[in-house]
């Protein structure tokens, strides 16, 4: 074979082997976004074409699991992971649709810096689950992210800044193992006009849980609280659990008294699935339980009630709820 033919064969092989590098930048970035950032950064060594591609990925996954070492402290933060997060947040350019940060070590020393850099990127989706050490206080700059649509945070402290204007586009809010106050959680929820999915689990500092969300469709609450107000006329699925926070005293049925049933379930005219667990039915049985609930559950398809059968008030409360169902398929 002549030298010219050999050169042509080599060039064809090179072109075929580097077909990925010839893809448009946005496609290569989309491919890399399916990897964690550590692996995406390693594509720098492929060729000069890939050198900065990772800095344009629309979705970032940062996890310290690959830096876990059997040696040293089990809680100290891996320096390489801290460097990786700093580098990813500093060098990323272009729109950032979503970011996920997962960690099992202590990152209190750098958390504020990360949140400041993150707030400047204005992502659409944020998931932060740092499970080690005490709760992380979300800095005020984070609440200025204007394009946020999905927020999922675990192990945090929610304290709203005075100038908080709300998350105009937020549709999903998932908070777990967090602490806040009645007013802050109330304002956070009510200042998200497009909120359709709300999950609140394992929280502290909230005695009166007030949920006002006109577009809410899915609700899951699991925690300790003393009072519960729900105004969500478009709610379709509700799973509410109350853990024992106080001793509920039996209260005589009095017409005209406060109706906990009404304030908790009175707006649920579109409810399709209703699950009541723990001591929530005990809570609902306080006060006047004979007051008619404004809503009629004529869309209800499934209902699950955890009832203490030796408590007559709980049984009566359960009967009142069931009586509001037009055609429950499962109860």
Automatic annotation (TrEMBL):
Domain F-box/LRR-repeat protein 15/At3g58940/PEG3-like LRR: 113-294
Gene3D superfamilies for this protein: Ribonuclease Inhibitor (3.80.10.10)
Residue stretches spanning the membrane: none
A Pfam family assignment: F-box
Family matches, as InterPro entries: F-box-like_dom_sf, F-box_dom, LRR_dom_sf, LRR_FXL15/At3g58940/PEG3-like
Coiled-coil ranges (or none): none
SUPFAM superfamilies assigned: F-box domain, RNI-like
Positions of the F-box domain: 20-56
Entry protein name: Os07g0459500 protein
Organism: Oryza sativa subsp. japonica (Rice)
């Amino acid at each position: 074979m002549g030298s010219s033919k050999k050169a042509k064969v080599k060039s064809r092989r090179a072109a075929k082997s580097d077909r990925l590098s010839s893809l448009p930048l946005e496609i290569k970035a989309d491919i890399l976004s399916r990897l964690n950032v550590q692996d995406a950064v390693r594509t720098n060594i492929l060729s000069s074409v890939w050198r900065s591609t990772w800095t344009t990925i629309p979705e970032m996954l940062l996890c310290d699991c690959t830096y876990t070492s059997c040696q040293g402290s089990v809680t100290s933060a891996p320096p390489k992971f801290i460097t990786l997060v700093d580098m990813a947040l500093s060098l990323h350019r272009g729109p950032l649709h979503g970011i996920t940060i997962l960690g099992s070590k202590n990152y209190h020393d750098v958390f504020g810096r990360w949140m400041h850099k993150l707030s400047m990127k204005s992502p659409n989706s944020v998931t932060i689950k740092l499970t080690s050490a005490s709760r992380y206080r979300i800095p005020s700059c984070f609440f200025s992210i204007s394009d946020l649509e999905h927020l999922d945070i675990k192990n945090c402290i929610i304290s709203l800044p005075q100038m908080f204007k709300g998350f105009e586009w937020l549709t999903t809010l998932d908070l777990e193992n967090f602490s806040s106050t009645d007013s802050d959680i109330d304002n956070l929820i009510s200042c998200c006009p497009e909120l359709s999915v709300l999950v609140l689990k394992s929280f502290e500092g909230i005695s009166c849980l007030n949920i006002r969300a006109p577009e809410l469709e899915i609700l899951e609450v699991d925690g300790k609280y003393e009072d519960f107000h729900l105004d969500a006329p478009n709610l379709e699925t509700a799973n509410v659990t109350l853990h024992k926070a106080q001793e509920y005293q039996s209260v005589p049925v009095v017409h005209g008294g406060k109706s906990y049933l009404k304030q908790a379930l009175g707006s649920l005219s579109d409810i399709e699935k209703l699950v009541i667990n723990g001591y929530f039915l005990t809570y609902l049985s306080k006060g006047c339980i004979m007051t008619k609930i404004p809503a009629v559950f004529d869309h209800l398809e499934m209902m699950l009630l955890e009832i203490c059968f030796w408590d007559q008030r709980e049984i009566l409360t359960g009967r009142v709820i069931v009586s509001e169902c037009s055609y429950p398929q499962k109860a």
